[in-house]
Design a protein that fits this description.
Blueprint: H1 4-11, H2 18-28, H3 38-45, H4 49-63, H5 66-85, E1 89-91, H6 92-98, H7 106-115, H8 119-134, E2 139-141, E3 150-152, H9 156-175, H10 181-191, H11 197-206, E4 210-212, E5 218-220, H12 231-242, E6 246-247, H13 248-258, H14 267-276, E7 280-282, E8 287-290, H15 300-311, E9 314-315, H16 316-324, H17 331-338, E10 344-346, E11 351-354
Antiparallel strand pairs: 1-3, 2-3, 4-5, 6-8, 7-8, 9-11, 10-11
Length: about 350
C-alpha cells in the first residue's frame, strides 16, 4: 500500500483551482500538520469564514470522484478492517497513532519520539483525517462530555460503547478499586461476552470517565491512583504497584522512573509528603507501607500494647507474629521491648499483658 501522505498529494492535483486547493491543505493541516481555522484563512484572503467554508466544501466535492475513490480504496480497506477489529469505533488520536506505521517505518517513528519532534507525524495524521473524511463508510463523532472525538463505521457502536463504559463505571464506583489490564478485560467480558478484547479496550480508551494509568491499571479518571495530582498520589501508586514496604528513597526513584513528569521528584519532598499523609505508615527505618495493608503507626512498644489490649495476654511468639504484621522490625527488638517492666508484665504461664 502506498504512503497516505504521497497518495493525498496526488489526489490534490485533481482540484483545478489553486485557492481551493490551498484551503483544503490548510484546513486539514496537510503541509505542516496544523489545522487552520476558517477565520484565519478568511483573514488571509480577505473573505468571510462562510465563504471559506463554501470553498472547502467545493474542494471536498471535487475529491469525491470515482478516480479518487479507486486511488484511496487500499487505504479505505485498511481503515475499515482496523475499525471493525476494534468494535467499529476508535478514539481519533489513537487511530492515527496506531496507523502511523503506514506512513513511516517503526525505527523512524521511534526516532521522532526520542527527539520529541512530531511534525512529520502530524502530516501523517492529517493525511488520514482527509482520507477518512472522503470515505463514505466513515463517520467522525465530535467530542462530548463522555467521549473524546472518535471515528466509527457504525454510529450505533457509540451506543454500545456508552452502555459498556457506563456498566464499568458503575462497577468501579461500587468496588472503589483499580484493576490490572487482564482483570479489567475479564470484568467487561463477564458483563458483555459478545465483545472482543480489542473492542473493550477501544471503548475504554475513547471514554473520558475511565482511564488507564502509566502502570497499566484501570479506574475512574478522577481517582488519584489513575490521575495523580502530586508526589503523594504518585507515591501511593508505586507502593500499591510494588505491593510491599519501601524506603522513601526507593519510592522517589520509582516515581521518577515509572511516573515521569516535567517536575522531578526529590527525596526530601517525598519523605515530607509520606510523613504527613495518613495513607502511609512508617514501619521501619525510612521504610513506608500503605495503611490499608494493615500496618499501624507507633513505636514498637506502642504496637505491642495495641496487640495485647486487643487480644489479651499473649505468648512472646504470638506477640512477635502479630507485631511483625504491623511493623518491619527485627524479632529481637520486639523481645527487648517486652522486657520493659514499666509497660508489660509476664504471668506464670509465660504470657505477657499490659501493666
Amino acid at each position: 500500500m502506498q504512503n497516505p501522505i504521497n497518495v493525498v498529494n496526488e489526489i490534490l492535483e485533481i482540484i483545478p483551482n489553486g485557492r481551493t486547493k490551498e484551503v483544503i491543505v490548510r484546513r486539514f493541516g496537510l503541509s505542516d500538520g496544523r489545522r487552520h481555522t476558517l477565520e484565519a484563512i478568511g483573514q488571509d484572503h480577505g473573505i468571510t469564514r462562510e465563504r471559506v467554508r463554501q470553498i472547502e466544501e467545493s474542494g471536498l466535492n471535487a475529491l469525491k470522484h470515482a478516480q479518487v475513490a479507486a486511488k484511496l480504496k487500499p487505504i479505505f480497506d485498511v481503515l475499515s478492517a482496523h475499525l471493525a477489529e476494534h468494535g467499529e469505533l476508535k478514539k481519533e488520536s489513537r487511530l492515527y497513532d496506531d496507523l502511523a506505521y503506514v506512513c513511516y517505518p517503526a525505527k523512524e517513528i521511534e526516532r521522532m519520539r526520542k527527539e520529541n519532534n512530531f511534525k512529520d507525524m502530524e502530516r501523517c495524521r492529517s493525511a488520514f483525517y482527509l482520507i477518512l473524511t472522503l470515505g463514505s463508510d466513515f463517520e467522525r463523532i465530535v467530542e462530548d462530555e463522555d467521549f473524546y472525538s472518535v471515528w466509527t463505521l457504525n454510529k450505533n457502536s457509540l451506543k454500545i460503547a456508552k452502555r459498556t463504559v457506563d456498566s464499568l463505571v458503575k462497577h468501579f464506583g461500587a468496588k472503589k478499586q483499580v484493576l490490572k489490564n487482564a482483570e479489567f478485560v475479564a470484568l467487561a467480558k463477564d458483563l458483555f461476552p459478545e465483545l472482543s478484547e480489542k473492542a473493550i479496550l477501544s471503548y475504554a480508551d475513547a471514554s473520558k470517565n475511565i482511564e488507564q494509568n502509566r502502570l497499566g491499571y484501570y479506574g475512574l479518571a478522577h481517582w488519584p491512583e489513575i490521575s495523580p495530582r502530586g508526589v503523594k498520589d504518585k507515591a501511593y501508586i508505586v507502593l500499591k504497584n510494588i505491593g510491599k514496604p519501601l524506603h522513601f528513597s526507593g519510592v522517589t526513584s520509582l516515581i521518577n522512573e515509572s511516573l515521569p513528569s516535567d517536575r522531578q521528584a526529590y527525596v526530601q519532598t517525598v519523605h515530607n509528603e509520606l510523613i504527613k499523609d495518613p495513607r502511609f505508615v512508617l514501619v521501619g527505618r525510612g521504610l513506608y507501607a500503605l495503611s490499608e495493608w494493615g500496618y499501624e503507626p507507633g513505636t514498637v512498644a506502642e504496637t505491642i500494647g495495641q496487640v495485647l489490649k486487643k487480644d489479651g495476654p499473649q505468648t512472646k511468639e504470638e506477640i512477635t507474629t502479630k507485631v511483625l504484621q504491623k511493623r518491619l522490625v527485627k524479632e529481637n527488638t520486639i523481645l527487648i521491648n517486652l522486657q520493659n517492666r514499666k509497660l508489660f508484665v509476664k504471668d506464670g504461664q509465660g504470657k505477657y499483658s499490659v501493666k
